[in-house]
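User: Show me a protein chain along with its predicted structure.
Assistant: Here is one chain, sequence first, then structure tokens.
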Amino acid sequence: MVRLVLLLLGVDYLRKRWLGLLAVGAVWAVAGAAIFVDALDGVLYFPLGVFAFLLLLEGLATLVSAHSGVGGHRVLRYVKGAAVVLTSIIVMARHPQGNFVLSMIFGTLFLIDGILQAIAAHVVRYPRWRLGMAEAVCEILIAIFFYQPYPTHYAGTVPYFVGLFLIFGGLHMAVLAVRAHTLPANPALPRQIPDAGTGAAAAAMATSATTTAGTTAATTTATTSTTAAPAAAAAAETAQRPAGSPAAQARADQEPPAADEDKHPALIVHVWTPTGSSKAPTQRQPIVDRYIAAVDVNGVISTGHAALESPEGIYISLYPGVEIDRSPDDMRKALRATAENDVPGRFLVDYPGEASEWCPSTVRVQIRNYDPDKLRQHWEQSRRNNIYNLTHRNCSSTVAQALEASIDGALGRAYGPESGWRAFLRVLATPELWVAAQVRRRATTMAWTPGLILDYSRAMSLLTSPRSVSWWRTARMSAIRIRARRRKWRRLDERKNSAGPGA
């Protein structure tokens, strides 16, 4: 989450306030250690009642604002808000078994996350996978600590959790503050892709617009059928629009812009979902067909695709140069993000060509507050490398890297140079930050997929275009809607009563 805050605020903002960030990180870490140690002897000085009350307010605010979410974000807001409210009620109830229940919940969450991260590190072998494995082991040990009753018989569950949260958050913030002060570029941005040589650059520049329809970004068994579909005229017009001022591109809407809005230039993230890009009807598999792959009635696997289009004419859509067709026995090796699984890749020229040869994108998300120059610089580096890797460098990961490069410092531009710490606090209070952080963490430790890039780009669309007093405005809108519904129900009751019992 801290990395996303740094990415959104930008390196200029951080360099001016790196000492403050370092101080905040140190205070957080020390406070977390003090709270954790305080709970070890069973005599608690931690204000559980005050903490539970604040937690309840935060959960209620999340639930009130949940209706303004989009798609999966709305569900995640409801889940997060309900979980926080439930936790606060358990703490405030002071039931003898409440601490035990919370310990089991916290321990299970740490255990599941640790196991998933360990499996991903072992199978995928992404860069710095050893560090990921160490973090997974730490999470499993923390889960064991929550499960066993020693030393306070579960009485210190909440202080333990709060202390660990502050310790890890403070350490991350302190480290990134130092890096922001010493490095020339934002440490939250993805590293620049090394030059793959002039041969790779020439291959990338000479990419044809013709694709094998049905071939997806990470497909293990692809469909090689051609579906003729007309190119979207709106997308072609978007590509021809001139770029606007980054400061003028910040919107006041909480929801992502609609596809038919043409007031300002927008960066478009095209997503072909696994179910939406399948030619035949698919077999329903919840979560799997949303984030991994869909299987149609003929047994054909579709994993979807992702691309990025800018009004300046940049189009980023990476495909494998040759069809990836491996047997199920080789699938475990194929999932490794190592050099032996690198294959030649190719970048497509534009969206109209791709849509006409395959099919239009299922979902389009617009990002209006972006930096065209940073996107161009990233693209000039990225297109020199035409390597495709199923889990490390696929269509979705290239879109994620380009998106992060283009929105670096977006909130610094939106709030202005004199925003001070207000911008930092507003970002931390935005619900979509939690959503984006969870999506990014899961993607970087496993693999970017079209489903994950869809959720990530939606969250970034909301984060980069903030609206003032969003919590207050959302609560006021909810209150207005509640009053309107009550008036409607009252009128219906009056009509029913006036009509008489026989009506």
